[in-house]
């Protein structure tokens, strides 16, 4: 059939509509896919902003130290809800303790400026669904690591636990640290039995955890949240630098002094010396602060043996603790060596003498030189001192 003029036949119109339908059928899914992709990217971007608000930005560094530690840095824990990031509510306000040299409390808002204007929609993702936020710890099925908290978007289908979910996990290793350090005396020997306290926030309130340095002066503190914290050291009995000496015609006598760095008097009721000499050596007499607490030729004291006696008091001093600011920013934090001598107020000093070392635990025996023999002394209060007499 012919057509006249510039009009379209029915067949032309059908063909055009068919082509348009094909194009439309192709474009609609593509457009929907693009919308979903855009919303996914927007949600991921918002999750990253929430991460920075909660745990800070690990990329922002000045002089090798992080400068942004977020909500966790100030409060010491994950927020109980996302609103805690921008609404103070009943959360404690931030205060700085000048004695402990660290602070605690809410110092927000922690939300970056570009999304502060949209606080009302902060709890929803780009798909319009509420974020699923939890601080109940669980084990990550892929890595086996402990997850302290998680923010999850239900994704495009609006249903949890499906393949299109978008989530942000806060692993323990991202917010908690193990702190290791050592306390030394003036000559570099470890100071055992010293009280070590870490000061840090918990729910916005400044709190502390205490441990004691081991025989070599090392200490460990676990599960301390990232942030600007401080460590307070309170050594007790410490050997006086340069006081350890050997005396006697055969160098078989040891003399050294200890000083009390605690703020209380210490009553010493036992004394144990550990050392390794060749031949094995035993000492007849132990004198502490001029008081003879052991003197027996028939029952000398050997390495690892404990002498017990009535309390001998070593008076404490004043200003006997020191607090050092410490930045916690990695899963393991190595605190710098702490040398308290010269920084703290000294208490009373007592001289200690271990006399007449011989190679027999009873009776006479031959004199044994103790020059250069490493000594480790443990007192009843838990203090441990180590030195080498010459």
Uncertain parts? none
**Rg on CA atoms, Å:** 35 Å
| Helix content bin | 10-25%
CATH architecture label of the domain at 237-320 and 340-387: Sandwich
Query: What is the name of the CATH class of the domain at 237-320 and 340-387?
Result: Mainly Beta
Mean of residue pLDDT values: 87
Residue fraction in strands = 35-45%
- Alpha-beta classification: alpha+beta
- Strand and helix order: HEEHEEHEEEEHEEEEEEEEEEEEEEEEEE
Q: How many DSSP E strands?
A: 26
| Major β-sheet annotation | 7 strands, antiparallel
- Within the CATH hierarchy, at the fold level, what is the topology of the domain at 237-320 and 340-387? Immunoglobulin-like
Explain how this protein is built.
This protein has 390 residues and is α+β, with helices and mostly antiparallel strands. Among the domains are: 176-234; 237-320 and 340-387, Immunoglobulin-like. 15% of the residues lie in helices and 37% in strands. The protein contains four helices and 26 strands. The chain has helices spanning 10-55, 70-75, 113-116, 172-175, and strands at residues 61-62, 65-66, 95-97, 102-104, 132-134, 138-139, 146-153, 166-171, 176-182, 195-202, 205-212, 218-225, 227-234, 237-239, 245-247, 253-260, 266-275, 282-288, 291-295, 301-302, 306-314, 322-328, 332-334, 349-358, 375-379, 384-387. Strands 14, 15, 16, 18, 19, 20 and 24 form a seven-stranded antiparallel sheet that branches. Strands 5, 6, 7 and 8 form a four-stranded antiparallel sheet that branches. The radius of gyration is 35 Å and the shape is elongated. The relative contact order is 0.13. The model has no long low-confidence stretch (mean pLDDT 87).
């Amino acid at each position: 059939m012919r057509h006249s003029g510039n009009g379209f036949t029915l067949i032309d119109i059908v063909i055009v509509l068919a082509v348009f339908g094909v194009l439309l059928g192709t474009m609609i899914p593509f457009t929907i896919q693009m919308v979903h992709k855009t919303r996914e990217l927007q949600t991921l971007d918002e999750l990253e902003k929430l991460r920075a608000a909660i745990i800070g930005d690990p990329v922002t560094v000045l002089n090798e130290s992080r400068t942004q530690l977020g909500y966790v840095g100030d409060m010491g824990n994950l927020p109980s809800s996302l609103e805690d990031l921008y609404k103070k509510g009943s959360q404690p306000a931030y205060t700085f303790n000048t004695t402990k040299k660290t602070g605690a409390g809410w110092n927000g808002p922690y939300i970056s400026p570009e999304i502060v204007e949209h606080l009302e929609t902060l709890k929803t993702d780009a798909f319009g669904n509420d974020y699923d936020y939890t601080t109940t710890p669980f084990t990550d099925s892929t890595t086996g690591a402990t997850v302290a908290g998680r923010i999850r978007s239900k994704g495009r289908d609006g249903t949890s636990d499906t393949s299109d979910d978008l989530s942000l996990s806060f692993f323990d290793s991202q917010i908690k640290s193990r702190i290791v350090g050592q306390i030394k005396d003036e000559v570099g020997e470890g100071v055992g039995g010293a009280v070590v306290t870490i000061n840090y926030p918990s729910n916005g309130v400044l709190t502390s955890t205490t441990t004691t340095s081991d025989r070599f002066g090392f200490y460990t503190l676990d599960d301390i949240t990232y942030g600007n914290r401080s460590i307070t050291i309170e050594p007790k009995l410490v050997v006086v630098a340069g006081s350890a000496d050997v005396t006697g015609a055969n160098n078989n006598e040891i003399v050294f002094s200890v000083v009390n760095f605690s703020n209380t008097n210490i009553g010493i009721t036992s004394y144990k010396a550990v050392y390794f000499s060749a031949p094995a050596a035993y000492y007849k007499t132990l004198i502490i602060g001029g008081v003879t607490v052991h003197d027996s030729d028939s029952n000398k004291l050997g390495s690892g043996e404990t002498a017990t006696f009535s309390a001998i008091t070593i008076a404490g001093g004043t200003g006997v603790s020191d607090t050092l600011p410490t930045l916690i920013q990695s899963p393991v934090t190595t605190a710098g060596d702490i040398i308290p001598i010269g920084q703290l107020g000294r208490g009373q000093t007592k001289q200690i003498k271990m006399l007449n070392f011989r190679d027999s635990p009873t009776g006479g025996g031959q004199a044994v030189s103790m020059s250069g023999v490493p000594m480790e002394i443990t007192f009843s209060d838990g203090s441990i001192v180590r030195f080498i007499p010459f």
